[in-house]
Specification:
Layout lengths: L3 H17 L5 E7 L1 E2 L3 E2 L5 H13 L2 E7 L3 H7 L7 E6 L7 E2 L4 E10 L19 E4 L7 H8 L6 E4 L12 H8 L5 E5 H9 L5 E5 L12 E8 L4 H13 L1 H10 L16
Parallel strand pairs: 1-4, 1-5, 8-9, 8-10
Antiparallel strand pairs: 2-3, 5-12, 6-12, 7-10, 7-11, 7-12
Protein backbone atom coordinates (compact mmCIF):
# COMPACT_ATOMS: atom_id res chain seq x y z
CA UNK A 1 0.00 0.00 0.00
CA UNK A 2 1.29 3.45 -0.88
CA UNK A 3 1.77 5.86 1.99
CA UNK A 4 0.71 9.50 1.69
CA UNK A 5 4.36 10.57 1.68
CA UNK A 6 5.17 8.21 -1.23
CA UNK A 7 2.16 9.45 -3.21
CA UNK A 8 3.24 13.03 -2.53
CA UNK A 9 6.78 12.38 -3.74
CA UNK A 10 5.54 10.83 -6.99
CA UNK A 11 3.04 13.62 -7.66
CA UNK A 12 5.59 16.38 -6.98
CA UNK A 13 8.21 14.78 -9.25
CA UNK A 14 5.79 14.27 -12.16
CA UNK A 15 4.17 17.69 -11.78
CA UNK A 16 7.39 19.69 -11.70
CA UNK A 17 8.85 17.71 -14.62
CA UNK A 18 5.69 18.36 -16.63
CA UNK A 19 5.59 22.09 -15.94
CA UNK A 20 9.26 22.45 -16.85
CA UNK A 21 8.30 21.48 -20.41
CA UNK A 22 5.13 23.61 -20.45
CA UNK A 23 4.37 26.09 -23.20
CA UNK A 24 3.55 29.73 -22.38
CA UNK A 25 0.29 29.11 -24.25
CA UNK A 26 -0.81 26.61 -21.59
CA UNK A 27 -2.57 27.31 -18.30
CA UNK A 28 -1.69 24.68 -15.72
CA UNK A 29 -4.15 24.19 -12.87
CA UNK A 30 -3.60 22.19 -9.69
CA UNK A 31 -6.84 20.36 -8.88
CA UNK A 32 -8.15 17.25 -7.16
CA UNK A 33 -9.08 14.41 -9.54
CA UNK A 34 -11.97 13.25 -7.30
CA UNK A 35 -13.44 16.11 -5.28
CA UNK A 36 -16.91 17.10 -6.50
CA UNK A 37 -18.50 19.60 -6.53
CA UNK A 38 -15.17 21.37 -7.04
CA UNK A 39 -13.26 19.24 -9.52
CA UNK A 40 -12.61 15.79 -10.92
CA UNK A 41 -10.62 14.29 -13.77
CA UNK A 42 -13.75 14.26 -15.96
CA UNK A 43 -13.87 18.04 -15.46
CA UNK A 44 -17.41 17.96 -14.04
CA UNK A 45 -16.82 20.29 -11.09
CA UNK A 46 -17.69 23.97 -10.99
CA UNK A 47 -14.03 24.88 -10.52
CA UNK A 48 -13.25 22.88 -13.69
CA UNK A 49 -15.87 24.94 -15.52
CA UNK A 50 -14.50 28.25 -14.24
CA UNK A 51 -10.94 27.22 -15.13
CA UNK A 52 -12.17 26.44 -18.66
CA UNK A 53 -13.63 29.94 -18.95
CA UNK A 54 -10.39 31.53 -17.73
CA UNK A 55 -8.20 29.50 -20.09
CA UNK A 56 -10.50 30.31 -22.98
CA UNK A 57 -10.47 34.05 -22.24
CA UNK A 58 -6.70 34.08 -21.79
CA UNK A 59 -6.19 32.22 -25.07
CA UNK A 60 -4.41 29.34 -23.36
CA UNK A 61 -4.80 25.57 -23.47
CA UNK A 62 -6.09 24.23 -20.15
CA UNK A 63 -3.88 21.57 -18.54
CA UNK A 64 -4.14 19.90 -15.14
CA UNK A 65 -1.85 18.61 -12.44
CA UNK A 66 -4.08 16.19 -10.53
CA UNK A 67 -3.49 15.79 -6.80
CA UNK A 68 -5.37 14.78 -3.66
CA UNK A 69 -6.95 17.96 -2.29
CA UNK A 70 -5.26 18.26 1.06
CA UNK A 71 -3.50 21.26 2.61
CA UNK A 72 -0.32 19.18 2.86
CA UNK A 73 -0.32 18.49 -0.86
CA UNK A 74 -1.09 22.12 -1.66
CA UNK A 75 1.84 23.44 0.33
CA UNK A 76 4.26 20.95 -1.19
CA UNK A 77 3.15 20.96 -4.82
CA UNK A 78 2.04 24.52 -5.52
CA UNK A 79 4.99 26.07 -3.69
CA UNK A 80 7.34 24.09 -5.93
CA UNK A 81 5.84 25.64 -9.05
CA UNK A 82 3.90 22.61 -10.25
CA UNK A 83 1.13 24.73 -11.79
CA UNK A 84 0.15 28.31 -12.64
CA UNK A 85 -3.01 28.59 -10.56
CA UNK A 86 -4.95 26.79 -7.88
CA UNK A 87 -8.71 27.20 -7.68
CA UNK A 88 -10.72 27.72 -4.52
CA UNK A 89 -8.34 29.53 -2.16
CA UNK A 90 -9.41 31.89 0.65
CA UNK A 91 -9.48 35.53 -0.44
CA UNK A 92 -7.86 36.63 2.82
CA UNK A 93 -5.05 35.40 5.06
CA UNK A 94 -3.65 32.83 2.63
CA UNK A 95 0.13 32.56 2.49
CA UNK A 96 0.51 29.88 -0.15
CA UNK A 97 -0.61 31.98 -3.13
CA UNK A 98 -1.64 35.49 -4.14
CA UNK A 99 -5.46 35.55 -4.26
CA UNK A 100 -7.36 37.22 -7.08
CA UNK A 101 -10.59 39.05 -6.42
CA UNK A 102 -13.28 36.68 -5.07
CA UNK A 103 -15.38 34.75 -7.56
CA UNK A 104 -17.89 33.70 -4.90
CA UNK A 105 -18.67 33.95 -1.19
CA UNK A 106 -20.48 31.27 0.79
CA UNK A 107 -21.15 30.16 4.34
CA UNK A 108 -21.05 27.13 6.57
CA UNK A 109 -24.51 25.63 7.04
CA UNK A 110 -26.41 23.19 9.21
CA UNK A 111 -27.71 20.23 7.18
CA UNK A 112 -30.64 18.17 8.46
CA UNK A 113 -33.43 15.99 7.10
CA UNK A 114 -36.54 18.00 6.28
CA UNK A 115 -38.76 15.36 7.85
CA UNK A 116 -37.00 15.88 11.20
CA UNK A 117 -38.13 19.54 11.26
CA UNK A 118 -35.10 20.58 13.31
CA UNK A 119 -34.75 24.31 13.90
CA UNK A 120 -31.04 24.98 14.37
CA UNK A 121 -29.60 28.37 13.52
CA UNK A 122 -26.49 28.92 15.66
CA UNK A 123 -23.93 27.12 17.78
CA UNK A 124 -25.79 28.45 20.82
CA UNK A 125 -28.95 26.43 20.13
CA UNK A 126 -29.43 24.08 23.16
CA UNK A 127 -30.53 21.19 20.93
CA UNK A 128 -26.93 20.73 19.76
CA UNK A 129 -26.08 19.23 23.16
CA UNK A 130 -28.52 16.36 22.67
CA UNK A 131 -28.17 15.24 19.05
CA UNK A 132 -25.45 13.61 16.97
CA UNK A 133 -23.44 16.15 14.97
CA UNK A 134 -21.25 15.38 11.95
CA UNK A 135 -18.32 17.70 11.22
CA UNK A 136 -15.56 17.64 8.59
CA UNK A 137 -12.09 16.66 9.81
CA UNK A 138 -9.06 18.17 8.09
CA UNK A 139 -5.35 17.48 8.45
CA UNK A 140 -4.21 21.00 9.31
CA UNK A 141 -6.11 21.58 12.54
CA UNK A 142 -9.66 21.92 13.83
CA UNK A 143 -12.30 23.46 11.58
CA UNK A 144 -14.20 26.58 12.72
CA UNK A 145 -17.20 24.36 13.51
CA UNK A 146 -15.17 22.02 15.73
CA UNK A 147 -13.68 24.96 17.60
CA UNK A 148 -17.08 26.59 18.13
CA UNK A 149 -18.57 23.38 19.47
CA UNK A 150 -15.57 22.69 21.71
CA UNK A 151 -15.78 26.20 23.20
CA UNK A 152 -19.30 25.32 24.32
CA UNK A 153 -18.33 21.92 25.68
CA UNK A 154 -20.11 20.06 22.89
CA UNK A 155 -17.70 17.20 22.22
CA UNK A 156 -19.04 13.73 23.08
CA UNK A 157 -21.84 13.80 20.51
CA UNK A 158 -19.64 15.00 17.63
CA UNK A 159 -18.64 12.60 14.82
CA UNK A 160 -15.81 13.43 12.41
CA UNK A 161 -15.87 12.66 8.67
CA UNK A 162 -12.69 13.16 6.69
CA UNK A 163 -12.88 14.37 3.08
CA UNK A 164 -9.31 13.25 2.39
CA UNK A 165 -8.69 9.84 3.94
CA UNK A 166 -9.64 7.24 1.32
CA UNK A 167 -8.38 8.15 -2.16
CA UNK A 168 -10.17 5.16 -3.71
CA UNK A 169 -13.67 6.37 -2.84
CA UNK A 170 -15.71 8.32 -5.37
CA UNK A 171 -16.56 11.77 -3.98
CA UNK A 172 -15.65 10.96 -0.40
CA UNK A 173 -16.71 14.45 0.82
CA UNK A 174 -20.31 13.38 0.06
CA UNK A 175 -20.18 11.05 3.09
CA UNK A 176 -20.72 13.99 5.44
CA UNK A 177 -24.07 14.77 3.79
CA UNK A 178 -24.99 11.14 3.17
CA UNK A 179 -24.67 10.49 6.92
CA UNK A 180 -27.55 12.93 7.49
CA UNK A 181 -29.70 11.37 4.76
CA UNK A 182 -29.17 7.91 6.31
CA UNK A 183 -29.93 9.25 9.81
CA UNK A 184 -26.52 8.11 11.03
CA UNK A 185 -26.33 11.61 12.51
CA UNK A 186 -28.99 14.24 13.17
CA UNK A 187 -27.22 17.24 11.68
CA UNK A 188 -24.03 17.99 9.76
CA UNK A 189 -22.05 21.21 9.73
CA UNK A 190 -20.65 21.67 6.24
CA UNK A 191 -19.18 24.28 3.91
CA UNK A 192 -21.91 25.68 1.66
CA UNK A 193 -20.74 24.41 -1.77
CA UNK A 194 -20.33 20.83 -0.57
CA UNK A 195 -23.63 20.88 1.34
CA UNK A 196 -25.62 22.51 -1.44
CA UNK A 197 -24.33 20.25 -4.20
CA UNK A 198 -24.92 16.93 -2.45
CA UNK A 199 -28.18 18.02 -0.80
CA UNK A 200 -29.47 18.91 -4.27
CA UNK A 201 -28.73 15.33 -5.38
CA UNK A 202 -29.98 13.54 -2.27
CA UNK A 203 -32.96 11.18 -2.62
CA UNK A 204 -33.95 12.27 0.89
CA UNK A 205 -35.03 15.94 1.08
CA UNK A 206 -32.51 17.89 3.14
CA UNK A 207 -32.64 21.32 4.73
CA UNK A 208 -29.73 23.80 4.66
CA UNK A 209 -29.65 26.58 7.24
CA UNK A 210 -26.90 29.23 7.11
CA UNK A 211 -25.17 29.55 10.46
CA UNK A 212 -26.16 32.77 12.22
CA UNK A 213 -23.75 35.16 13.91
CA UNK A 214 -22.54 33.58 17.17
CA UNK A 215 -23.04 35.40 20.44
CA UNK A 216 -19.55 34.61 21.72
CA UNK A 217 -17.22 37.60 21.12
CA UNK A 218 -14.27 35.31 20.37
CA UNK A 219 -16.21 33.24 17.83
CA UNK A 220 -14.76 32.44 14.42
CA UNK A 221 -16.28 33.58 11.12
CA UNK A 222 -18.43 31.12 9.20
CA UNK A 223 -18.63 33.06 5.92
CA UNK A 224 -15.71 33.23 3.50
CA UNK A 225 -14.87 34.64 0.09
CA UNK A 226 -13.05 32.41 -2.40
CA UNK A 227 -10.50 33.33 -5.08
CA UNK A 228 -8.13 31.89 -7.64
CA UNK A 229 -4.61 31.50 -6.26
CA UNK A 230 -1.69 32.70 -8.37
CA UNK A 231 1.99 32.23 -7.52
CA UNK A 232 3.55 35.18 -5.70
CA UNK A 233 5.14 37.60 -8.16
CA UNK A 234 2.85 36.64 -11.07
CA UNK A 235 1.13 40.03 -11.00
CA UNK A 236 0.34 40.15 -14.71
CA UNK A 237 -1.47 36.81 -14.64
CA UNK A 238 -3.37 37.81 -11.49
CA UNK A 239 -4.52 41.05 -13.11
CA UNK A 240 -5.61 39.19 -16.25
CA UNK A 241 -7.64 36.73 -14.18
CA UNK A 242 -9.18 39.58 -12.16
CA UNK A 243 -10.36 41.17 -15.40
CA UNK A 244 -11.88 37.91 -16.66
CA UNK A 245 -13.61 37.20 -13.33
CA UNK A 246 -15.24 40.62 -13.60
CA UNK A 247 -16.17 40.00 -17.23
CA UNK A 248 -17.64 36.57 -16.45
CA UNK A 249 -19.30 37.54 -13.14
CA UNK A 250 -22.92 36.87 -14.18
CA UNK A 251 -22.02 33.61 -15.95
CA UNK A 252 -20.03 32.35 -12.96
CA UNK A 253 -22.85 33.20 -10.55
CA UNK A 254 -25.37 31.30 -12.69
CA UNK A 255 -22.97 28.32 -12.79
CA UNK A 256 -22.59 28.31 -9.00
CA UNK A 257 -26.35 28.51 -8.49
CA UNK A 258 -26.84 25.54 -10.84
CA UNK A 259 -24.61 23.51 -8.48
CA UNK A 260 -26.86 24.41 -5.54
CA UNK A 261 -24.26 26.58 -3.82
CA UNK A 262 -25.62 28.97 -1.16
CA UNK A 263 -24.16 32.37 -2.04
CA UNK A 264 -23.73 35.42 0.19
CA UNK A 265 -22.47 38.89 -0.55
CA UNK A 266 -18.69 39.37 -0.07
CA UNK A 267 -17.74 40.61 3.43
CA UNK A 268 -21.38 40.49 4.54
CA UNK A 269 -22.17 39.83 8.16
CA UNK A 270 -24.50 36.95 8.95
CA UNK A 271 -27.75 38.01 10.54
CA UNK A 272 -27.67 37.57 14.30
CA UNK A 273 -30.05 34.94 15.61
CA UNK A 274 -33.00 36.28 17.55
Amino acid sequence: MFSVSKILAVVVTIAISTLACASPQELWVCADHNNLPYSNDRQEGFENKIAQLLAQDLGRKLQYVWWPSSPMFASKIFKRGACDIIMGVPSKAYDLAEPTQPYYSSTFVFVSRRDRKLEIHSFDDPILRNIRIAVPVVDDGATPAEQELAQRGIVRNVVGYTPFGDLSKDSQPAELIAAVARSDVDVAIAWGPLAGYFAQRSSVPLKLTPICAPTEPRSLPQRFSISVGVRHGEDELRQQIDAELTHRHAEIRALLESYGIPLVEPDSSPEACK
